[in-house]
Amino acid sequence: MAGTSDSNGEGGTVRRAMIGSQVRDIILERIVGGDYASGERLVETRIARELGVSQGSVREALRALEGLGYVESAPYRGTRVRQAMTREEALALRPVRAVLEQLAVETAVPVLAQQPGPLRATMADMRKAARAGDVKRYAHASTDFHRVLVHASGNAALVTAWESLGVDSRMLATTMTSVADLKSAAERHAPILEAVLAGDVKRAAHLLGEHQEYYLATAVS
Fold first, then answer.
1. How far is residue 111's CA from residue 55's CA, in Å, rounded to a whole number?
2. Would you say 81 and 31 are in contact if contact means Cβ atoms under 8 Å apart?
């Protein structure tokens, strides 16, 4: 990611956002993988130098991770890796996400039944990533599957609430630590896709609820 100087205009904004999400993912992977220990101080300048990005990009990434509960900052102590999220904290997020997604399908299913391309594409990407054993790509494809459903609802308030849960980062952490069989995990989305393609709102909502209940039962964050 070296040579990533800021540029003006919409293209520069998009590029900065992409760099920020990449930096966030790298730091998160290091936290989840144990490269950064609980309580370890994360020095912006050092990380920026290692990754070849601006200190601002690292600061934004750390701010995002703090909002998700993976790091914490305090005056005179800087930013440090937070102790692991408790099981209760992790499980509390699942019902909220489930409700939002079940609400989304009420208006999203009729849209996606007529324009299924984006949802089909994310399913195909999940399967491809699973076959390749690519954990990071799988996590992003899985998130995108649910993101397509939520955004297709056309409900801006619902979309904002769902995005605020940090599903991208949480899914990456979950996949790294708790998903042993990517192929099986990918296929759990297939019945949801079939229900959407059939225009069956009730079944799609039910399956999304079951999808989240499965992870609740296995204590996946």
1. 42
2. yes
CATH code 3.30.70.20 for 9-81: no
Taking the C-alpha atoms of residue 182 and residue 160, their distance in angstroms, rounded to an integer, is 28
What span, in angstroms and rounded, lies between the C-alpha atoms of 54 and 51? 9
Q: Identify which has the larger pLDDT, 6 or 31.
A: 31
Say how far apart CA 173 and CA 135 lie, in whole Å.
Answer: 10
Residues 6+ apart with CB under 8 A from 205: 102, 105, 106
Output the CA–CA distances (angstroms, integers) from residue 59 to 21, 69, 120, in the order listed: 12, 15, 36
- The structural domains of the chain, with segments of one domain joined by +, span 9-81, 87-217
First to last CA, the chain: 29
**Amino acid in the structure at residue 2:** A
Pick the range with the lowest mean pLDDT from 25-34, 88-97, 105-114. Answer: 88-97
| Each residue's pLDDT tens digit, 167-182 | 888 888 888 877 889 9
Q: What is the DSSP string of 6-39?
A: --SHHHHHHHHHHHHHHHHHHHHHHHHTTSS-TT
87-217 maps to which CATH number? 1.20.120.530
69 Cβ contact list (under 8 Å, min separation 6): 82, 85, 89
What is the b/e burial string over 70-89, where b = at least 16 CB atoms within 10 angstroms of the residue's CB? bbeeeeeeebbbbeebeeee
